[in-house]
Structure formats: structure tokens, C-alpha cells
Amino acid sequence: MTDSVEDTAGPAGAQSTGNEPTTAPEGGYAAARLRLLQDETSTGPDRRAALARLTDDWLAGLLARHGTAAGLSGTALVAVGGYGRGELSPRSDLDLLLLHDGRADAGALAALADRLWYPVWDLGLALDHSVRTPAQARKAAREDLKVQLGLLDARHLAGDPDLTATVRTAAYADWRESAPKRLPELQELCQERAERQGELQYLLEPDLKEARGGLRDATALRAVAASWLADAPRGGLEAARTHLLDARDALHLTTGRATDRLSLQDQDQVATALGMLDADALLRQTYESARTISYAADVTWREVGRVLRARSLKPTLRGLLHGRTAGKGERSPLAEGVVELDGEAVLARTARPERDPVLVLRAAAAAAQAGLPLATHAIRRCATATATKPLPEPWPAEAREQLVTLLGAGTHTVPVWEALEAEGIITRLLPDWERVRCRPQRNPVHTWTVDRHLVETAVRAAALTRRVHRPDLLLVAALLHDIGKGWPGDHSVAGETIARDVAARLGFNARDTTVIATLVRHHLLLIETATRRDLDDPATVGAVAEAVGSTRTLELLHALTEADALATGPAAWSTWRGGLVADLVKRVAARLAGEPDTELRGVGEPTAEQERLAIEARRTGGPVLSLHTRAEAPTEADTGPETPAPAQEPVGVELLIAVPARPSPARRASTSPAGAPPMGVLSAAAGVLALHRLTVRAADLLLLDPIDEGPVLVLSWRVAAEYGSLPQADRLRADLIRALDGTLDIPARLAERERAYARRSRAVLAPPPRVTVAPGSSDTATVIEVRAQDAHGLLHRIGRALEAAGVAVRSAHISTLGANAVDAFYVTGADGAPLADAAAHEVAAAVQRALQ
């Protein structure tokens, strides 16, 4: 006789052999059990329930026969754990508890237990068993969490029902009372098991029970619900659990063993037993089920943590908060219609997703950039809205930018993306995603399923965005590079067509769409050529150069190749492979170097509106502002000469500022009455926009310097309010005047805001900024390129650094691509000439130090 529910061993020689017996001392039950398991018309939940009922009757008969013969009363036989839930797979353990009231003779009780346990062992079935009084069972549950969880599923089989009722009532009462202390222990057990067994949804040979997202986690969610502190999302959870149980049943019958590991050699037979097409279909359904359970677990444990944190507030503190913020929580704005509340990104009270189809992407991007989970109720509101009011096609510019921002958030992208996928939003936004969702990859080099690999590639690409001129194209290509794996044939060829369609749907112009399609088509070109071809052969380099077409595409392809390999797994990338690819890229770049670089612009011609503002600025001697909505029509280069041009698309609010140019503050000795040095136009204007929470999407700075009139700086900004409405133009002008004369301390104000933001946000771990000199880009100026994470006051800090370096900014071209800023500044020395090489690199280093 044993005193532990976890003991499974019987007497010597009584362990399971792994084969169903055809004869046994209890032949009636054994024969009926065998007939049930061989009956192909009874499967799934019905068969498990029938097997449980059959076993119930057999065990009840054993207790009645042997208990009466021994003259014992005051006993009860109870099923616990999985058997208690009435879920018996063909080779499941029997979890049994023999309760007694404590009055029976110990020897007689031991003899009764033997007469119950030995028939089970004789049939080759595994058994967890214990003999206890209700008080002993309650004590054991308090000391052992696993015993406690088993008793939550206690079910009466035979004997005195009052004993069973006493144990069940006490088990639930104790669990609810101790839940604040025991739930963290349960969560820790789940985490340890996940680290040990891995994530079921990505394993080629998953453990259906122990891996994360498996049956153990589903049971843990039931225990959390029983605590009344939190409950799991119900959508699809029971169906997912049923799928895993059905797969385990088929696995038991196929192997004849009590195993939960779905090994490769068994998958085809298990798929056939379940009526599925093949092993891939089996794995895909298994992964989908595991993903549902994992997502439910993430949401549930997050809710548990929030409830427990709220309960941990001392009563005195709760009393002080009552009537003010208690129960309300502090809301911190993240983006238009999105706020942070209790450690989650939620929709603002005024948000209307049914009127704002971009809101779901804006909320996801804001959550990922802040390192916060996106609240489930927010996702579901957006999911309902997108079903009735989808995004127009092609997508508006804001939607495309928010997608790029989401992809560029690094590791924080993954949980937000998974939450969107769990609610069906991803496949609604990107219908082609359905074919790669949960698709297994049988190459052992791969760590992830196809869809997760694509997201992981975007995560890796986010760390490489400083290396490329168009981070948005890199991130989107990373997301789509294996999108063709759901189709027959070469996935790169199929993917090129799909990527072209998706890019056009996202609103990229024809030129950018071609680049994305080229990257997808040739995403394996560099690694395969570098590791399989002779790089000294001119034909090798020529073939790659012809396929890539331009140095800018080569730059993107190099970054995509590295991101793809790093996301594949440890075996796919090494220093050696990276060196070979870099060597190939260097040779191809040299072959392509003859192409003129036309993407960096020089000093342009002013528009009529800019000329008008410049004249007004000269007349008044101060800044002049113009603020209005702007639409942009695609050019022939965007659409192609034979492609019908789409309708004009609103691209944001255009702010024009004209200011009489002044010497660099570094060369001015005067200071304002407040003691702060007067500020240059670029840094002052950028600082004022940052203070008014305006996000700069693009900007151009142009110096108008006619011979007979004074020079004027004209700044063209495309801006958007982070949240709320746009500020009034007269307020912007007033603050700009104060910034220019030094009475508005912008650096101090921005630093204060940055500290407040840092206190409430887990910022994304972005790659460091990169500031370089672009040689040969202009004959009249030195071009300084800045690639950095977009942030509050970034352009202001760049402007201050350039002013401190004593250079003049002749023109600037600012672009924000998702969460990345890619800026080019045309600067000259005091003599108006380009900087010497040494001086140019000193300026670049100074700007980089300012940004770090």
C-alpha cells in the first residue's frame, strides 16, 4: 500500500508490457476493452468516455465484491487526474484514490487495496494510487501541488459518496483560498516544463502532453479557472484540447505503448488512423492546437499576474486610492487611439475601430514598440471591426507605415504578431498567410514553422536596418521571403509572384514592388552562390550582378540573407558562411559600381509656395508657417508608363516653415536672457515639433540664397500627430520664435519627457545608430547619412550636433520608414565648400556620439 498519488510501480513483474492482453483474470473487462479499442466506429471523445465508463463499472464491481467480502464500510473509490475527467486514452494511467473514514482495521484495508490494485497491474495497465482519509488527502494536497491539481478532478466511482463529496469540497475550498500563493508555483512549473520540453507548435517530434501548448498546459488552465481569479480565452480552446487527445489516442493504438511523443516514424500511421491526408496535415493541426493553448496560457497568466498585483496592495493604500484612481488605472498615451493601462496596450475610450481600419495596425505597432502585450479585448474589438470594414486596397500610407513599424520592433514583434494571428487578423490582412500558417518544415536545420520563421526573419532584419537605405523594403521582404512554401514547385519562384501581389496590395509603388519581388525571388542566391560556386570565376559574379541589378538591391539582399540564415537556426549561419557571402557581395558591388547613384538628391528648385513663404519671411524678419493637408499622386516612375495611375492618396499634413537664415550658433557669442544659446533653424523647428508631439514622416530643408536678397531656410515637413489633434499654427510659430531666441529650453523639456517615457515603457532594444559620410554623392556639399531608431527629438539632436560642429546645412532629406529614420544632410564648411575627408568624418563621429 502506498501513500502517494504519484506512485506508479506495482509489485515485481507487474509493470505494463505495452501490449493489450487477450486473457486476464478479469477476462470480461479485458475482452470488452479490447473490442472497444478495435471498434473503428467509436473514436475521439466518445471512445474516451466509453472507455472511462467501462473502467468505472469494472472498478466499482471490484470494490463492491472485495469490500463486502472483507466486511468493510466507510470506503470510497475515487478517480482523479485525467481519469477523473473521464478522459481515458488507450494506454492512459489509472489515477485512483481509495478513501476511508479511518475506522477500518489497517490490515483489512491493506488487503482491500491489494485486491483493487493487483487486477489493474495484471492487465498491464499503469496505475497511480493512494490510500488516505479525507484529512490525509487534504494534508497531502496542501503539501504537494500535483496532488492538489489531481483532486480538483476527483470523481466518485463507488462506495460512500459522502467521503468523495467531502474531499472534493475541501479541495476546491483550499485551492481557492491558497490560489494567490499556489498559482505562481503552478506557473513556475509550467515554465520549467516548457524550458525542458520546448514549444509543441515548433517541434518535429513533439510531446503532446509535456511540451508547451500541450495537454498539461490545458489542465493548468482548468486549475486557474477553478481558482476564480482568472479564466482562459474560450475560443477554440476545447477543440484544440480535443485534437491533441485524439492524436494521443491514435498514437497509443499505433504504437501499442503509453507514449506521448509523436515521433517521425509514427506520424504517417497516426495521420492515417485519424483520416488525415499525410503527416504534414497531422503536424499542422497539432501545431494549430498547441498555438491556441499557448496563446490562452499567455493571456491567462498575464491576467493572473495583474489580479495578484492588485491584491498585493496594502488595504491602507487601497483606501487612499479609493475614489481617485483605485480600480481605474493610469492611462498613458501610446498612439492615436491607443493607451497603456496596467501593463498592456489597450484602446482609448474614444477609439472607434469600426471607423478607423488602420487602428489595429497602429495599436499593434505601438504595443510592440513599447514592449507591451496587446490586450485581448482590444484585439477582439479590432477583429470585429476589420471583418465589417477592411482596409482599402491598396493600403493607405499610414497602414503600410504601421506594418513596417510593427515588423521593426525586434523581439517584441513576436508576441504581438502571435496575438493578432490567434484572433484571425493576420490572415484577414494578408490572405496569402493562410498557406504558410503552422506549416511544418521537415528540414532539421529549421527551428520554426514557416510562418514563425518569416516573423523571426523580420525580427533579425530589424537589427540590420542600419545597414540599408530602405529598411521598410528589407522588413517586408523578410516577412514574405518564404511565402511561396505553401505552393507546389520552387518556393522562390512562387513567392516572387505572391510577393509582387502583396506589395502592391500594401500600397508600394511599382519600383519598390519590383525590389521586394526581386529580393524574394533571389533570397537564396547569395548564400548558395557563396558556398557552392567559384567566386574567382567572373561568370559567377556576373550572374549575381545581373540577377540583382543594382547596388541598392544588393545591399538589401545581403541583409536579408543574413537575417534569413540567423532565423533558420544555429547551423545555418557561421563566421565562415558570413565571410563568404561578404566576399561575394564585395565582388558584385564592384561589378555594379559603374551605375550612377541617382537616389541621393542634391539642392532642388523651390516651389511657388516655398517662394511665397520665403518672400514673407524676408519682409517680416521672422518665421512664417503654413499648415495644410497634402495629397500625393504617383509619378510615371512609380506606376510605369502603361500602368493606370491610382487615385491621389493623402500622405499626411504638410508643414512649411520659412526662416531668415542666421549664422551657426557655434559661431555666435550672444545668449538669451535665460542663459541658453540661441538655436539653429533645423534643430529649433525639429524640437518644437517634438514638443508638440508631431511625428516627422519626411522632411526637406532647402536654402534659398538669391544674390540680391538675404538667404532663407525653407523646411518642408510631412507630419502626423502621435495622438490627439494637430496644434494650431500660431502656437507652433510662437514656440519656434522662443526656441530661436533661446527663451524656450527645448533640450531640457525633451529630456524631461524622455525620462517620463522611460519610466513607464519597456523600450525596444534597437540596434545602435549609424552615421556615415557618403563619398561622391555631391560636388557642392558633403553628404552625412544618419540611420537610427526614430524617437522623440531625434532630428533635434542631430541638428544640435551639426550646429555644434560648425557646419552649415545646405539641404536635408528626412524619411521615416516604420520605426527607422533614414536621413541625409548636405553640409558645407564656413567657406561654403564641401568638407575635407578628415573633417567630414569628424562631423559624422560627433553626430553619432550625440545620438548615443
How would the blueprint of this fold be written?
Elements: H1 27-38, H2 44-69, E1 75-79, H3 81-84, E2 94-100, H4 106-122, E3 127-132, H5 134-143, H6 145-151, E4 155-159, H7 161-197, H8 215-226, H9 237-255, H10 264-273, H11 279-311, H12 315-321, E5 332-335, E6 338-341, E7 344-347, H13 359-370, H14 376-388, H15 397-407, H16 413-422, H17 425-429, H18 450-462, H19 471-480, H20 491-506, H21 510-521, H22 525-532, H23 538-548, H24 551-568, H25 575-592, H26 608-620, E8 624-632, H27 636-639, E9 649-660, H28 681-691, E10 694-704, E11 712-721, H29 729-741, H30 746-760, E12 770-773, E13 782-789, H31 794-804, E14 808-817, E15 820-828, H32 837-851
Parallel strand pairs: 2-3
Antiparallel strand pairs: 1-2, 1-4, 5-6, 6-7, 8-9, 9-11, 10-11, 10-14, 12-13, 13-15, 14-15
Helix pairs in contact: 1-2, 5-6, 5-7, 7-8, 7-11, 8-11, 9-10, 9-11, 10-11, 13-15, 13-16, 18-19, 18-24, 19-21, 19-24, 20-21, 22-25, 23-25, 24-25, 28-29, 28-30, 28-31, 31-32
Précis, in short:
By secondary structure, the chain is α+β, with helices and mostly antiparallel strands. The protein has 32 helices and 15 strands.
